[in-house]
Structure prediction request, 210 residues.
Amino acid sequence: MQLEHTLSHETKEGNKYLVEFSAFNQNAIPVNVNLPIINLSLVQVEAVKQNSPAFLKYLAQYVCDYVNTFDVILYYYCDTTDIVMRKSRKSTPQKYRHDLFCTLYDTIHNESIIREIIIIKDDSVGDHYILLITTKKNQKELEKLSAEFEDFKDKV
Amino acid sequence: MYVCMIQLNTMLLKTVRIEKPTPQLLNLVRKLQAEKEENKKRLVSKKDDFFKKK
Prediction:
């Protein structure tokens, strides 16, 4: 496993996914954190039918293994691309992805992994949901990063 | 004798809700969102290369 790589995965249902781990351009997020911030992208490139939960569990475990291998903070931004969800569920694609990932990581048994969630209200394009993941030993750096996001709200 | 199994899950430290973001923060996250959408398009356009490699 390399720090920056792209995983291609075909589920047993025949859906195809690309999962990319890529370092942020240092100018992209103006932060003072002593760890690389790695952008996690999850893209469904071919949809045949609805996935079983097995794929999501596999993905969450892969991400946990990655974070346990490298000293990084993983940044996952829940994007706005359409996603299949029940009609009765009144949610945006971002919120749906966020709920899905939270449920998933709540069930993964890995005591060394810690997470923080940042939700930023945006009436124009929909709220932003950001998930930060790292290991317990990097808790201070994680808190530093989320504090920098929080500080932004005071800068007018 | 009873055996107690405890499963320790990933830990959510906290959820930060920013209800009144500044224009600077909104610009930053919107820019990151746009970059992410572009990155997705790039990955989709290269999908055949990735699945051929397998």
Q: What stands out?
A: The beta strands of chain A are 5-10, 16-23, 37-46, 73-77, 113-120, 128-135. The CA atoms of residues 6 and 20 of chain A lie 4 Å apart.
